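Hey, resending since the last one bounced:
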Amino acid sequence: MKAQSIKMLRTLKSTSKYIVIGCLVGLFVGGINSAFLKSLEVATENRLQHPWLIFFLPLAGVFVSFLYVKLGKQSSKGNNLILEKINHENVKIPLRMAPLVFLGTVLTHLFGGSAGREGTGVQMGGSIADWISRVLKLSKQDSRIILMSGVSSGFAAVFGTPLAGTVFGLEVAALGFMSYESIIPCATAAYIGNAITGLLGVSHSHYVIQSFISPSLANIIKIILAAVAFGLISRIFSKLTHKLKELFSSSFENAMLKSFIGGVIIILLVFLVGSRDYIGLSLPLIKESMEGQVSPFAFIWKTIFTSITLGTGFQGGEVTPLFVIGSTLGNFLGTLMSISPSHLAALGLIGVFAGATNTPFASFILGIELFGANGIEFLFLNCIVSYFSSGHTGIYSSQKIAKSKHSIVTLPDNSTLGSIAKKKKDRIINTNIKLSGQFCLGRSSIELPVKPGLNLFVIKSKMKGLVLSHNSFNPDSATWTSPPNIGEQNVSVLPDDDKIYAIQVHKVHDRLDKVLLTNSNLISNVEVNYTNIDQSGYDRDLSKQNKEINNQFQSKKLFGQFKWGFSSFELESEMGINKYVICVSGGTVRLNHDSYNPDGHFYSQPAQNGEPAHRDLSPGIHNITVNIGTSCGKKDIITIVNISFFKEVEVKYQMVSDEENDLTEIVD
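The structure tokens again:
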């Protein structure tokens, strides 16, 4: 009896804790989302009153991208970063995400980008909830639960739908799974966040269905067909947005230039279409879909405008555009099928949202909160069919697949929508490609498919100007701009050359290195043929190479940091370019490049000539190039350190000239 009482007290204490923290999250998130929604109203009114503001959209994009490059770090990943943290990945959500996405979204809408607001609300909610967890020093599991409450509160505050916000926070992180242990803080935060927006005078849009579809077998079939269309258009929207992000990122390495080009394209589209209905939130299109007729091409134009806006680095959500796409498509299908365009517009709004976010139950509840319970059976059928029709795609690439949508489809454990899409892409072999010049239309670079470890390529071209770039993830700018831990960052590809290019790919900050093939010519296009090579044929060569290393290389044994003996040594070097072949076995070592510090009279400053200060060398053979400079008249030094506490590591090394470098030309 006593043990049962203690258990009840612990449960009560835990529940009370979640309620209190949920209230705290709701207060903060509701307050900042109220300010955001008010700012969005002001931005929209000013854009409508001053049509010339759209001509500053490219500059607004440059400014927003500049902020994210300089200050954002991982904030540019947006909602995907929050989902990664919920799914137990070791990532940090910076508090700066909230003000950055707030400002970025308001500027996008002020100057005429086509985006939504849900993404902003959820990102602000997630970053604030994670900050509260850090301040209160909550456990990892509690932090995850409170983060989900931030998602619920942000969604509820933006749309005025606390029930849907609660379930959205529980459902969105993983397909086929709900985190019921989080329901109390999610519900608390959602209701408090929504109440705060109401108290602060924020009004939400709710729509009235003009006429309902009568239940009949023929109408049920029509609803099913329409729901399939809603699932397919959500699939198209998701794939198009992801593809444009990839295309623009590979074509324009400079994020600010990418956003500038995106802004120019939006302006040209506005004048091409002859309408401004598709910029901003486009809420009038939803009202027109519910009350009358809209253009049969409205859903296509809204899809294109939004995918380009988000694909070129502007900030904002996807959900409100999905509402517009779904409602306009539903209105068109209703007219085509001779059933109520108003009712089918409402079903389209919910169906496209369900397919793109993979949250059928949150969508079902959202439909009830927005339109009422009349026609509830059609609403439920619509959500389920659209969810299954969209397949394993969605707007959140970090969404985990806890259970496949289809029993006949088996997916690897811990798969995400992004990893599934990447595997499908990797199965496509594009050996012949055309890379445009930097000043020409078309892509000037392509990302080569790689996997962890050694990757071998044969690259053939008739022209000069091809550059093979190997970059590691840089957490400061959340882009792949850092030099790789192993090998050279940029290698020129010689024309008509049979050389095998080897890239040792690693994960840095939990992100796999990227390898790009770029045409550096300004105007000339280059035809390229590249092939991945099976590594098994090189086993004999590598074995022979290891024997040569044993005969020619100097050897050092480094003890662990907590053991007696030397754990580091200085690598001999000369002024200028130094090339080494380094063989590491037994563990990872760190190559440090240090400059002289006159304040302490020892070598404690990072390299002053722009060289990487540290490179981690995993077990294997490495080609390393180091540019030795000076600081205060003293030559830089290179040291190799065993970073393990207890393990011994053996390092074999040799300084080589360009002529001798052929010993290691098949490994990076």
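The radius of gyration is 28 Å.

Sorry for the duplicate.
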